[in-house]
Write a structure and sequence with these properties.
19% strand; 4-stranded parallel sheet; 427 residues; globular; 12 helices; alpha/beta; binds zinc ion; 7-stranded mixed sheet
Amino acid sequence: MPKSLFAFFTLAVLVPFASAAPGAVRCGKLLDVRVGRVLADQLIVFDPNGAITAVGPASSTALSGITPVDLSAATCLPGLIDVHTHLTGDPNSSGYQGLGISVPREAITGAKNARLTLRAGFTTVRNVGASSYTDVALRDGINAGDIEGPRMLVSGPPLGITGGHCDENLLPFEFHFKADGVADGPWPARAKVRETIKYGADVIKICASGGVLSKGDQPGTPQYTFEEMEAIAEEAHKLGRKVAAHAHGTQSIKDAIQAGIDSIEHSSLIDDEGIALAKKRGTYLVFDIYNDDFILQEGAKAGMLPESIEKEKKIGRLQRENFRRAWEAGVKMAFGTDAGVYPHGDNARQFAKMVEWGMKPVDAVQAATIKAADLIGWSEKVGAIETGHFADIIAVAGDPMSDVRVLESVKFVMKGGTIVRNDLGVR
Ligand SMILES: [Zn+2]
């Protein structure tokens, strides 16, 4: 093969997946998520480490010999962030069929879902709950470049009370089985925080109230006490970790906020007092308001227990109404979907729900970018296209500010300067 032809083939094969670093992207439109404004004809330049070194109008931003990836027909946004995923779980791991899935198999499932999630435009996730540290292995495998996936913050096993939402309640007594994260009482709970951090947790996840997909409890019922949550929050913060609390119940939400928990997951039955407390303390609320549709339509087929479907029927609509009330009251909100309860890769379907229930498209996008980055403590590196941030860039064909659904079909994904999806065929 002539040398020039060989070079051509090498390039043609390598370009879609190879690191483009150092490099640049030229965007026909760029959504500045911080101010909610669309800028025309912008250039984003990044260094060999995949960090952004310059952003500005294409006419006045220096390129020094780099040919930019041409996204001049598209709208660019920062890579999206989902702060509530379960990458190592699929919908069919709920109910009794989940008992037959081994830990190594869950890890493999995680590798599949990490790729789906990244290719859907979510370049960062906070994974809140996985058994036996499969999420730690997944994060480390992605960071090492062994598999494709988003940047991950992981919790390891979620902490909870005996028989609670974060325990495994499907097996009878003679199996003597309890989930990895079960810890009762303030000191055992502190010890469990230390243990999960020892084995690699970036964030602590707890179950403050009952849940939908657990057997034998109710979403509104408190589980961890205020004293237990106060101990967990203090221990985690001392060790430099934030705490996310699963809490559907009215009282549990308030107890968790007052105990110093950083984010309330689900938040379904929050009342006015809870909303006022969240606002006063600056606590983030994470409302997973898309998956209700999936649970009611597909849950039974996916193996969810009949009692779970009944519980969802009772709280699904209330959760959406309370999302609207909390948003109108001005509480901080981050985008989290509970992916794993519904199929991974459909994360962006929640944007339309958020708009349907009171947000403007820009608010919903901010919840999945700058707000989510703030909650996870990564504001300096993800959630915005700015100097010093990772070149995590996605592109869509339409205008997400007039139709947020275009985010459901992301055409281009770049993570840290490397193209991972290129449906536009750009170079
Ligand atoms: Zn969850």
